[in-house]
Amino acid sequence: MIDVLAPGPYATIQDLGRPGYAHLGVPRSGAADERALTLANRLVGNPEGHAGIELTFGGARLRFADPAWIAVTGAPCPLYLAGRVAEMYAPVWVPAGAELVVGAPAAGLRTYLAVRGGVEVEAVLGSRSHDSLSGLGPPPLRPGDRLPVGVAGDRPITVDAVPGPAFPAAPVLGVLPGPREDWFTEEALRAFYGTPYEITPESNRVGVRLRGAALHRAREGEIPSEGMVTGAVQVPPDGRPIVFLPDHPPTGGYPVIGVLTSRALAVIAQLRPGDQVRFRPGGPGAR
C-alpha cells in the first residue's frame, strides 16, 4: 500500500488510457506525458502501460507501507526519501514505512511516479486512468487515500539511471496539417506558424488554451461535429487555438488547423501557464 499524506495541487492515477471507446463518447484519457510515464515504468521493470501517479506541480507526500522500487520522471522536482535526497530518472529502493516528499518542479508541469508492480486501483473500461472530463476512473487523490500496489513481474531492473529530457524555455513544436486547414486564411496560417503563443491559466488535462494572434477563417459558418484526436489544434470562433490533451471530448465542432506530432505532445503537456511556444509545419516533433 501507498498512503497519500498530501497529494499536492492535483494528482491522479494514470496509465495509457482507454482507447477504442470514442464511438461511445468516452475519451481515451491516460498520462498527459506518455513518454515520462512509460520511462518510469521501464526503470522499475514494469510493462510500459502500468498505472502510476501523475503529479501536477509536485507537492506530494507519500508513505510506503511495504518496501518497494520506485522511479520518478517528468518535470524535475526535489525528492526526499526518509529525509534524504533521492534521485529522479533512476530506480530507487524504498524501505517499509519510509516517506517520500516531492517538491515543486524547477521546470515543467507534470511529474510521474511508477512503483514496481504498478498502482492497482480498480480499472474502469480496461484502464485505471482518471478522466477529468467524464469522471471515469479513480478520483483525484486526496489525503488519506490508500493505493494498492500490484505484484511485481519477472522483468528485472536493468538500468541504474537515465538522463532526463530538456525543458526548453520556448519550444518549437512540429504540427501536421489538420483536416480543416483550408478553412483558414493565408494570414492565419502565417500567424500560426510565425508568431509565439502563450499558455494560459485556463489550460488543463482537456486542452491547452493559447493566447496570441487570432486565427481568422477563410469561410463563414460552422462544421458538423466530427471526431477529434489528442494533439488536434481546434480553433473556436474567437480565433484562439486550443490544443487537445488526453481528456479531450471525442468530437468537436470547430475546425482543426493542425495536429501536433506525438513527440510534440509530450513537450506541450509539460508547459505551464505563462510559458511560450511556437509551431512549425511538419514532423518529427520539437526543438
From TrEMBL:
The record's listing under InterPro entries reads: CT_A_B, Cyclophilin-like_dom_sf, PxpC
Task: Name the PANTHER family on file.
Answer: 5-OXOPROLINASE SUBUNIT C
What name does the UniProt record give this protein?
Allophanate hydrolase
- Gene Ontology molecular functions: ATP binding; hydrolase activity
Source organism (scientific name):
Spongiactinospora gelatinilytica
Annotated keywords: ATP-binding, Hydrolase, Nucleotide-binding
The record's section on SUPFAM superfamilies has: Cyclophilin-like (SSF50891)
> Boundaries of each Carboxyltransferase domain copy?
23-287
Keyword Cell division among record annotations = no
